[in-house]
Write the C-alpha coordinates for this entry.
Amino acid sequence: MKIAVLGTGGGGRAHAAKLAELGHDVFVGTRDPEATLARSEPDMMGNPPYKQFLADHPGLTLLPFGAAAAAAELVINGIDGHNAVATLTASADQLTRKTLIDYAVPFVYQHQSEHPWPTPWGVMPKLDPCDTDSLGEQIQRALPQTKVVKSFVTQEQSTVVDPQAIGGGDHTMFVAGEHADAKQQTIDLLKSYGWNDILDLGPLVCARGMEMYAHMHSAIGFGLGQKFGGHFGIKVVR
Protein backbone atom coordinates (compact mmCIF):
# COMPACT_ATOMS: atom_id res chain seq x y z
CA MET A 1 0.00 0.00 0.00
CA LYS A 2 1.06 3.58 -0.56
CA ILE A 3 1.14 5.27 2.86
CA ALA A 4 2.09 8.83 3.79
CA VAL A 5 3.56 9.70 7.18
CA LEU A 6 3.27 13.42 7.87
CA GLY A 7 6.02 14.59 10.21
CA THR A 8 9.71 13.87 10.61
CA GLY A 9 10.00 13.61 14.40
CA GLY A 10 10.64 10.45 16.36
CA GLY A 11 7.07 9.18 15.98
CA GLY A 12 6.99 9.71 12.25
CA ARG A 13 10.35 7.99 11.91
CA ALA A 14 9.11 4.97 13.84
CA HIS A 15 6.09 4.57 11.53
CA ALA A 16 8.04 5.22 8.34
CA ALA A 17 10.70 2.65 9.19
CA LYS A 18 8.17 0.00 10.22
CA LEU A 19 5.93 0.54 7.20
CA ALA A 20 8.90 0.22 4.87
CA GLU A 21 9.93 -2.96 6.68
CA LEU A 22 6.42 -4.32 6.06
CA GLY A 23 6.80 -3.67 2.34
CA HIS A 24 4.69 -0.53 1.92
CA ASP A 25 5.60 2.39 -0.32
CA VAL A 26 6.24 5.18 2.19
CA PHE A 27 6.04 8.91 1.48
CA VAL A 28 7.20 11.15 4.31
CA GLY A 29 5.71 14.63 4.42
CA THR A 30 7.53 17.70 5.71
CA ARG A 31 7.01 21.43 5.34
CA ASP A 32 10.20 22.06 3.37
CA PRO A 33 12.21 19.01 2.23
CA GLU A 34 15.30 21.06 1.41
CA ALA A 35 15.33 22.66 4.85
CA THR A 36 14.73 19.28 6.50
CA LEU A 37 17.68 17.75 4.66
CA ALA A 38 19.90 20.75 5.37
CA ARG A 39 19.68 20.39 9.15
CA SER A 40 22.88 19.06 10.66
CA GLU A 41 22.00 19.09 14.37
CA PRO A 42 19.73 16.78 16.39
CA ASP A 43 16.15 18.00 16.84
CA MET A 44 14.67 19.14 20.17
CA MET A 45 14.08 15.53 21.22
CA GLY A 46 17.61 14.44 20.36
CA ASN A 47 16.76 12.66 17.11
CA PRO A 48 19.66 12.75 14.63
CA PRO A 49 19.38 14.84 11.45
CA TYR A 50 16.75 13.53 9.05
CA LYS A 51 19.31 13.22 6.26
CA GLN A 52 21.02 10.55 8.35
CA PHE A 53 17.72 8.76 8.96
CA LEU A 54 16.99 8.68 5.22
CA ALA A 55 20.45 7.30 4.53
CA ASP A 56 19.67 4.45 6.92
CA HIS A 57 16.25 3.88 5.27
CA PRO A 58 16.83 4.34 1.53
CA GLY A 59 13.35 3.20 0.46
CA LEU A 60 11.59 6.29 1.88
CA THR A 61 10.55 9.29 -0.24
CA LEU A 62 10.63 12.77 1.33
CA LEU A 63 8.08 15.24 -0.09
CA PRO A 64 6.18 18.39 0.89
CA PHE A 65 3.08 17.63 3.00
CA GLY A 66 0.60 18.01 0.14
CA ALA A 67 2.60 15.92 -2.32
CA ALA A 68 3.05 13.13 0.23
CA ALA A 69 -0.70 13.07 0.94
CA ALA A 70 -1.49 13.08 -2.78
CA ALA A 71 0.77 10.09 -3.42
CA ALA A 72 -0.80 7.94 -0.69
CA GLU A 73 -3.88 5.79 -0.19
CA LEU A 74 -3.64 6.06 3.61
CA VAL A 75 -2.23 8.97 5.63
CA ILE A 76 -0.80 9.04 9.17
CA ASN A 77 -0.67 12.44 10.87
CA GLY A 78 2.26 13.13 13.17
CA ILE A 79 2.32 16.92 12.73
CA ASP A 80 2.58 18.69 16.08
CA GLY A 81 -0.81 19.51 17.54
CA HIS A 82 -0.36 23.29 17.48
CA ASN A 83 0.09 23.30 13.68
CA ALA A 84 -1.90 20.25 12.64
CA VAL A 85 -5.24 21.80 11.63
CA ALA A 86 -3.76 24.61 9.53
CA THR A 87 -1.21 22.34 7.85
CA LEU A 88 -3.71 19.59 7.04
CA THR A 89 -6.32 22.08 5.80
CA ALA A 90 -3.80 23.33 3.25
CA SER A 91 -3.77 19.77 1.84
CA ALA A 92 -7.54 19.23 1.98
CA ASP A 93 -7.85 18.32 -1.71
CA GLN A 94 -5.08 15.73 -1.46
CA LEU A 95 -6.77 14.18 1.60
CA THR A 96 -10.27 13.93 0.13
CA ARG A 97 -11.92 10.52 0.62
CA LYS A 98 -8.81 9.13 2.32
CA THR A 99 -8.34 7.69 5.79
CA LEU A 100 -6.30 9.97 8.03
CA ILE A 101 -5.02 8.35 11.23
CA ASP A 102 -4.27 11.12 13.71
CA TYR A 103 -2.01 10.61 16.70
CA ALA A 104 -1.18 14.27 17.42
CA VAL A 105 -1.64 15.70 20.92
CA PRO A 106 -2.86 19.32 21.23
CA PHE A 107 -0.01 20.43 23.49
CA VAL A 108 0.65 24.13 24.07
CA TYR A 109 4.22 24.74 25.17
CA GLN A 110 5.67 27.73 27.02
CA HIS A 111 2.30 28.66 28.49
CA GLN A 112 1.67 30.66 31.64
CA SER A 113 0.15 28.63 34.46
CA GLU A 114 -0.83 29.64 37.97
CA HIS A 115 0.08 26.15 39.17
CA PRO A 116 2.70 24.75 36.76
CA TRP A 117 3.54 21.05 36.65
CA PRO A 118 7.35 20.73 36.79
CA THR A 119 8.81 17.77 34.93
CA PRO A 120 12.36 16.46 34.38
CA TRP A 121 12.48 18.41 31.10
CA GLY A 122 10.58 21.61 31.98
CA VAL A 123 6.99 22.66 32.60
CA MET A 124 4.34 20.23 31.39
CA PRO A 125 2.51 21.67 28.36
CA LYS A 126 -1.21 22.25 28.63
CA LEU A 127 -3.87 20.73 26.41
CA ASP A 128 -5.88 23.01 24.14
CA PRO A 129 -8.54 22.00 23.21
CA CYS A 130 -9.54 19.96 26.23
CA ASP A 131 -12.76 18.59 27.77
CA THR A 132 -15.26 20.17 25.36
CA ASP A 133 -13.42 19.48 22.10
CA SER A 134 -10.44 17.57 20.74
CA LEU A 135 -7.82 17.99 18.06
CA GLY A 136 -9.18 14.94 16.27
CA GLU A 137 -12.63 16.53 16.06
CA GLN A 138 -11.16 19.84 14.92
CA ILE A 139 -9.33 18.07 12.11
CA GLN A 140 -12.52 16.25 11.05
CA ARG A 141 -14.50 19.52 10.98
CA ALA A 142 -11.76 21.17 8.93
CA LEU A 143 -11.64 18.19 6.54
CA PRO A 144 -15.25 17.00 6.12
CA GLN A 145 -14.34 14.91 3.05
CA THR A 146 -11.60 13.03 4.92
CA LYS A 147 -12.15 10.00 7.15
CA VAL A 148 -10.39 10.88 10.41
CA VAL A 149 -9.54 8.15 12.91
CA LYS A 150 -7.96 8.93 16.27
CA SER A 151 -5.54 6.21 17.33
CA PHE A 152 -1.92 5.48 18.34
CA VAL A 153 -2.06 8.43 20.78
CA THR A 154 -2.05 6.52 24.09
CA GLN A 155 1.41 5.00 23.54
CA GLU A 156 4.84 6.09 22.47
CA GLN A 157 5.01 5.59 18.71
CA SER A 158 7.98 3.26 19.11
CA THR A 159 5.60 1.01 21.05
CA VAL A 160 2.76 1.46 18.56
CA VAL A 161 4.89 -0.05 15.79
CA ASP A 162 6.34 -2.77 18.04
CA PRO A 163 3.76 -3.78 20.68
CA GLN A 164 5.59 -7.03 21.38
CA ALA A 165 8.35 -5.00 23.03
CA ILE A 166 6.06 -4.45 26.05
CA GLY A 167 4.72 -7.41 28.02
CA GLY A 168 4.83 -9.65 25.00
CA GLY A 169 2.22 -7.44 23.35
CA ASP A 170 -0.45 -7.99 26.01
CA HIS A 171 -1.80 -4.45 26.17
CA THR A 172 -4.56 -2.40 24.57
CA MET A 173 -4.75 0.04 21.65
CA PHE A 174 -7.75 2.26 20.94
CA VAL A 175 -9.47 3.65 17.85
CA ALA A 176 -12.29 6.19 17.48
CA GLY A 177 -13.95 7.73 14.45
CA GLU A 178 -17.12 8.24 12.47
CA HIS A 179 -16.32 5.97 9.51
CA ALA A 180 -16.44 2.19 9.99
CA ASP A 181 -14.34 1.47 6.91
CA ALA A 182 -11.60 3.87 8.01
CA LYS A 183 -11.53 2.37 11.50
CA GLN A 184 -11.24 -1.10 9.99
CA GLN A 185 -8.34 0.10 7.84
CA THR A 186 -6.67 1.42 11.01
CA ILE A 187 -7.32 -1.85 12.86
CA ASP A 188 -5.83 -3.83 9.97
CA LEU A 189 -2.70 -1.69 10.09
CA LEU A 190 -2.43 -2.14 13.85
CA LYS A 191 -2.72 -5.90 13.44
CA SER A 192 0.10 -5.81 10.90
CA TYR A 193 2.17 -4.01 13.53
CA GLY A 194 1.45 -6.91 15.90
CA TRP A 195 -1.48 -5.66 18.00
CA ASN A 196 -3.95 -8.27 19.26
CA ASP A 197 -6.06 -6.22 21.69
CA ILE A 198 -7.70 -3.30 19.87
CA LEU A 199 -10.70 -1.55 21.42
CA ASP A 200 -13.06 0.51 19.25
CA LEU A 201 -14.25 3.32 21.52
CA GLY A 202 -16.93 4.47 19.07
CA PRO A 203 -17.40 7.99 17.67
CA LEU A 204 -14.68 10.57 17.25
CA VAL A 205 -15.79 12.48 20.34
CA CYS A 206 -13.89 9.78 22.25
CA ALA A 207 -10.70 11.38 20.95
CA ARG A 208 -11.13 13.77 23.88
CA GLY A 209 -10.41 10.99 26.34
CA MET A 210 -7.47 9.66 24.36
CA GLU A 211 -5.85 13.07 24.07
CA MET A 212 -6.42 13.93 27.74
CA TYR A 213 -4.75 10.64 28.68
CA ALA A 214 -1.46 12.17 27.48
CA HIS A 215 -0.87 13.73 30.90
CA MET A 216 -1.52 10.44 32.68
CA HIS A 217 0.86 8.73 30.28
CA SER A 218 3.56 11.22 31.27
CA ALA A 219 2.81 10.80 34.96
CA ILE A 220 3.12 7.02 34.75
CA GLY A 221 6.41 7.37 32.89
CA PHE A 222 7.79 9.70 35.55
CA GLY A 223 6.65 7.27 38.23
CA LEU A 224 8.61 4.55 36.48
CA GLY A 225 11.67 6.79 36.38
CA GLN A 226 11.44 7.37 32.64
CA LYS A 227 12.33 10.96 31.74
CA PHE A 228 10.94 11.05 28.19
CA GLY A 229 7.79 9.25 27.12
CA GLY A 230 7.32 5.85 28.65
CA HIS A 231 8.35 2.28 27.93
CA PHE A 232 5.14 0.65 29.16
CA GLY A 233 1.66 -0.34 27.99
CA ILE A 234 -1.86 -0.10 29.37
CA LYS A 235 -4.31 -3.00 29.43
CA VAL A 236 -8.09 -2.88 29.63
CA VAL A 237 -9.02 -5.93 31.71
CA ARG A 238 -12.52 -7.11 30.79
DSSP finds ten helices and twelve strands in the chain.
